[in-house]
Design a protein that fits this description.
This protein has about 425 residues and is α/β, with parallel strands linked by helices. The chain has 2 domains: about 5-155 and about 295-370, Response regulator (Rossmann fold, 3-Layer(aba) Sandwich), CATH 3.40.50; about 155-285 and about 370-400, Rossmann fold (3-Layer(aba) Sandwich). The protein contains 12 helices and 16 strands. The strands form 3 sheets. A 7-stranded mixed beta sheet has the order 8-7-9-10-11-15-16, sandwiched between helices. Strands 3-2-4-5-6 form a 5-stranded parallel beta sheet, sandwiched between helices. Helix 2 links the parallel strand 2 (about 25-35) and strand 3 (about 70-75). Helix 2 (about 40-55) crosses helix 11 (about 315-330), helix 5 (about 155-170) runs parallel beside helix 6 and helix 7 packs across helix 8 (about 240-250). The radius of gyration is 21 Å and the shape is globular. It starts with a strand and ends in a 16-residue tail after the last strand. InterPro entries: BCAA_transport, Leu-bd, Peripla_BP_I. This is Branched-chain amino acid transport system substrate-binding protein. It comes from Sulfitobacter undariae. Keywords: Amino-acid transport, Signal, Transport. It holds the Pfam family Peripla_BP_6.
């Protein structure tokens, strides 16, 4: 198994550079995510994190191989699968051989299918899909392909960790499940129902519904149903404006139990929840910033804040994505041959600065890593979000979560 430790694999690249980056071609990574519309803040914050990771981990250290720098090229997909396919073609035409996306599994499913078709028809311009946040389990199960790599834990893996925490909370007798009406929201619902039944059959699911994605302006009707149900806890996979709108409405309508979430931090949400979210909002995530897990993580975050004082790192998997890509390109000795780069990524073991060993499982290209559950608070917070006094602090960790989880992936290799 190939092993790479924290930033060391990338830092060491400066020792093998043979040409100035001024004379080297750039390695183009197309960032296809929402930069306008209701989820623009989520996409814009992710873009900053990708641009910083590319500079800090690669470009500022001399680049890769012959000095080539990683260039992040942004494309606004407006959270639309159709628009994403248009932007994918534009990106390929501009020479991008790596595509990253994360906001919306419906988009990811459209992209992975299109990239698979493109690569079969165009062997001279193949593309790798670096999925940093779209977590529908289908992407590494029945919809898997060789060109897709997921750097986030899938929704089943995260729900496994969340339901461990819920099962241990004896005060939770009734749960309300609510999410966005698309593939990811349905996957969260299915996993929550099955895992709660297996771990705590006494827990009653008193509500299970989906709402239109990005279209609900007032969540009051949903909040009133949650309150009326007598739920002790809420589970939601909502993200962006939908998470903020739902969470604020539920709390403002008097709910005081835990709200277990996937994406209820950063991008303006932490500041908006403020004191009202303390003791209520819980977040499942793959990385941890409070407490800082390593000196390297502290240095990285401090450098990020020096460049973007009004932003925050709410997706540690972004730097993992860039770090592992850089290590794979170095291992393969090329950025142009994406088959060779994919081969280097497969089965790679990488020590993240964020406190976890990472293993890219070759069977389905799903990254295996630690999963944490954190609480929204203003206590013990070094790195706050949204220029507020609040952030998230780790409460528990499941090490190498769901490492033995089954996959139905039947991958065809080139």
């Amino acid at each position: 198994m190939k092993k790479f430790t924290k930033l060391g694999a990338v830092s060491a690249l400066s020792l093998i550079i043979g040409a100035s980056s001024a004379f080297a071609e750039t390695i183009k990574v197309a960032f296809i995510d929402p930069l306008s519309g209701p989820f623009a803040s989520t996409g814009a914050n992710g873009l900053k994190q990708f641009e910083f990771a590319a500079d800090y981990m690669v470009n500022d250290k001399g680049g890769l191989l012959d000095g080539a720098e990683i260039e992040i090229i942004a494309f606004d997909n407006k959270t639309s699968p159709k628009e994403s396919l248009i932007q994918l073609q534009v990106a390929i035409d501009q020479g991008a051989r790596y595509v990253t996306q994360g906001n919306g599994s419906a988009v990811a499913l459209a992209l992975t299918e299109a990239i698979d078709k493109h690569n079969r028809r165009n062997p001279d311009s193949r593309v790798l899909f670096l999925n940093y946040a779209a977590v529908d389990p289908a992407l590494t199960n029945e919809q898997c392909n060789f060109w897709h790599f997921r750097f986030d834990a899938n929704s089943d893996m995260k729900m496994d960790a969340l339901t461990d925490v819920i099962a241990a909370n004896e005060d939770v007798k009734k749960v309300y499940i609510i999410g966005q009406d698309y593939s990811f929201g349905k996957a969260v619902s299915d996993a929550a129902n099955s895992m709660l039944k297996a771990k705590r059959p006494d827990i009653e699911v008193v509500g299970d519904e989906l709402h239109p994605i990005g279209k609900v302006k007032d969540f009051t009707p949903y909040s009133r149903k949650i309150i009326a149900s007598g739920a002790d806890a809420v589970i939601s996979g909502n993200w962006g404006a939908d998470m903020l709108g739902l969470g604020k409405s539920v709390i403002e309508n008097g709910f005081t139990g835990p709200i277990y979430t996937y994406y209820a931090a950063g991008s303006g949400m932490t500041a908006a929840f403020g004191e009202t979210g303390k003791g209520i909002i819980r977040l499942v995530s793959e990385g941890v910033v409070n407490p800082s897990p390593s000196p390297e993580a502290t240095a990285y975050y401090d450098a990020f804040l020096a460049k973007y004082p009004d932003a925050n790192i709410d997706q540690t998997r972004i730097s993992n994505t860039i770090g592992m890509l850089a290590a794979a390109i170095t291992e393969a000795g090329t950025a142009d041959d994406v088959v060779a780069v994919a081969g280097a990524l497969e089965n790679m073991e990488y020590d993240s600065i964020w406190g976890s060993k990472l293993v890219m499982r070759p069977d389905d290209h799903q990254l295996i890593q630690n999963i944490n559950v954190s609480a929204h608070t203003n206590e013990g917070v070094k790195y706050t979000f949204d220029s507020s006094d609040y952030g998230v602090v780790k409460e528990s960790t499941v090490e190498m979560a769901s490492a033995d989880i089954a996959t139905s992936c039947k991958m065809k290799r080139p």
